[in-house]
Specification:
The complex is a heterodimer of chains A (114) and B (113). Chain A has 114 residues and is mainly beta. Chain A contains no helices and eleven strands. By secondary structure, chain B is mainly beta. In chain B, a hairpin with a 6-residue loop joins strand 3 and strand 4. The chains are: A mainly beta (114), B mainly beta (113).
Chain lengths: 114, 113
């Protein structure tokens, strides 16, 4: 029954490391999203993708990049991790014909950068 | 997207109805109201959505005022497992392009035993 899977629940990385967060969905959705969530700030959109190899910046793209080589997989990349990127990262996918009512989220990856 | 305003936190006694308000005074005619919730350490979960009529499903009821400037999510018999942050989102639904999900800070609902 699992629909959106994130590769790790918890991750600890060192400052300056390149970090890959993977997200896979099995619903054949075109639209996928990466968010970060911090206390008191709610969910903030980092990047989204509406098709393979297509990507758009969200509200806070600085320090991040993404990759969408296959429809089912959307990767978030921290090119050089910094302590201010310590956060909960959430991936979501949406069926564009069903709108927000069909948004599915992964379980989240709690990243700590030390 | 129209801006939404929700209280920061609310408490509710177990077994009682939880009524979570949301103001969206700048909502336009083609914008829907969506509700999601997020239980601690999990991803957000869709609850219900509506345009102008009241809606009910197995999880909750959604009451939208006639002028559509506010709405209320009702959990009829709250349980401890309903303790979560509840997000109200207003969004246009259209096909053929990406839809950004923009969440605010939501309301922390605590169901008390």
């Amino acid at each position: 029954d699992v629909k959106v899977t994130q590769s790790s629940r918890y991750l600890v990385k060192r400052t300056g490391e390149k970090v890959f967060l993977e997200c896979v969905q099995d619903m054949d959705h075109e639209n996928m999203f990466w968010y970060r969530q911090d206390p008191g700030l709610g969910l903030r959109l980092i990047y989204f993708s509406y098709d393979v190899k297509m990507k758009e910046k969200g509200d806070i793209p600085e320090g991040y990049s993404v990759s969408r080589e296959k429809k089912e997989r959307f990767s978030l990349i921290l090119e050089s991790a910094s302590t201010n990127q310590t956060s909960m990262y959430l991936c979501a996918s949406i069926d564009p014909d069903r709108g927000l009512a069909e948004a599915f989220f992964g379980q989240g990856t709690r990243l700590t950068v030390v | 997207d129209a801006k939404t305003t929700q209280p920061t936190s609310m408490d509710c006694a177990e077994g009682r109805a939880a009524n979570l308000p949301c103001n969206h005074s700048t909502i336009s005619g083609n914008e829907y109201v969506y509700w999601y919730r997020q239980i601690h350490s999990q991803g957000p979960q869709y609850i219900i959505h509506g345009l102008k009529n009241n809606e009910t499903n197995e999880m909750a009821s959604l009451i939208i005022t006639e002028d559509r400037k506010s709405s209320t999510l009702i959990l009829p018999h709250a349980t401890l497992r309903d303790t979560a942050v509840y997000y109200c989102i207003v969004r246009v639904v259209f096909s053929g392009s990406a839809r950004q999900l923009t969440f605010g800070s939501g309301t922390q609902l605590t169901v008390l035993p």
